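Recap quiz, item 2
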Amino acid sequence: DVKVTQSSRYLVKRTGEKVFLECVQDMDHENMFWYRQDPGLGLRLIYFSYDVKMKEKGDIPEGYSVSREKKERFSLILESASTNQTSMYLCASRSSGTGLPLHFGNGTRLTVT
Amino acid sequence: EDQVTQSPEALRLQEGESSSLNCSYTVSGLRGLFWYRQDPGKGPEFLFTLYSAGEEKEKERLKATLTKKESFLHITAPKPEDSATYLCAVADDMRFGAGTRLTVKP
C-alpha cells in the first residue's frame, strides 16, 4: 500500500512566521502535489512537482513556495504566514503516466493566529 | 479551463434509502475521472477510476458510471458507515469538485 506521510497533524503558527509543511511518500512516485481544503471550496491545487527539482504552479500559488530536493519528499513553505492561510493542507503523490489516481496523506490542519 | 461541479452539496438519507451523487465536468479530452471518499479529519481515499463513456465500476454499495459530460455515484441501500464526503476529480490536472457531504441516518 502507498503511504503518504505528513509530518504534522496540527500546527499553530503566528502571523509572519515562516512555516514548513513536510510530506514523504514511500512508493517511488514521480509526481507530488500540495492542496489546501476549505469548507465550501473543496480542494484547490497550490503546487505540484513532476520530478525532483521540478515544480509547477497550481491554481493558488500566491504566498507559497515548494521544494523537492529528493524524490520522496515534497515541502510546502509559507514564506510569511497570514491568517487567510489557516486551512487543511493535503499532500498527494502518484506515479507518472496518464489517468492514474492520487494517494493522499491525512493532512495538516494549520492555524495562523 | 477544466471545470468540475458536484451536486448536491449535502445529502441526508435514511438507512436503506438509495440515491445518486452527480459530478459534471468540462474538459477537453478526458483522461480519467476519479471518485474519492473522505472521512472527517482524514485525507481522501481513492474509490474508482472511469476512463470512457459507458464504463461502470462497483464496490459494495457504490456504483460509479460515466457519460460524456457527467459521472454518477449511485449508493444502494446505504448504511450509516457510508457517511462521508465524496469527491470527484478529472485527470490529468487533478482538478476536484467541492464534494458532496453524505449523511446516512440509522
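The first strand of chain B starts at residue 3 and ends at 7.
The interface with chain A takes residues 9, 31-32, 34, 36, 41-46, 49, 51, 87, 89, 91-99 of chain B (CB under 8 Å).
End of item.
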